[in-house]
Automatic annotation (TrEMBL):
<dbReference type="InterPro" id="IPR010982">
    <property type="entry name" value="Lambda_DNA-bd_dom_sf"/>
</dbReference>
<feature type="domain" description="HTH cro/C1-type">
    <location>
        <begin position="26"/>
        <end position="82"/>
    </location>
</feature>
<dbReference type="GO" id="GO:0003677">
    <property type="term" value="F:DNA binding"/>
</dbReference>
<protein>
    <recommendedName>
        <fullName>HTH cro/C1-type domain-containing protein</fullName>
    </recommendedName>
</protein>
<dbReference type="InterPro" id="IPR001387">
    <property type="entry name" value="Cro/C1-type_HTH"/>
</dbReference>
Amino acid sequence: MQSLNSNSEIVIIEISQLDYLLIVNIKRKRIEVGLSQVSLTQKMGLSEGFVGKVELFTERAKYSIRHIHLLASALNCTIQEILPVEQPKYDMVKLTLKRTNKINKDGSVSRKKITEVIKIEPREDLKS
C-alpha cells in the first residue's frame, strides 16, 4: 500500500479477471435498476455488507456460483444478463486501486473510502 497523501492511498491487488468482470457487470446492473448495495444484499438474503465488500475489491468476499441465481432473482433479470459479455483474456490480473477518503456534505473528511480502479494489467508471472 502506497500513501499519496493523508486522504488517499494506492493499493495493488490480484484478482481473477473473470471475477473482476463479473463484479463490474453486476454493479452496473445494480445501479441500472436503482438498488443500493444494502438493498441487493438484503434481497439476496446474505449477511449485512456482503455486496459492499465484493464491490470494494480489497476484501476477500467474492460472488460464487450459488450467488448467480440469487443475483438474477434480486435484480429481476436472467442469469445471462448477470454474466459478463467480455471474454477474459487472462486468468489473473493486477488491479491498481486509488482509495480516497470520502468528503461529507459539510466538507469534513470521512473515514469511509471511495475505491477507484485506475489500472488493470495481467499478472507478470502469467504472461506468455
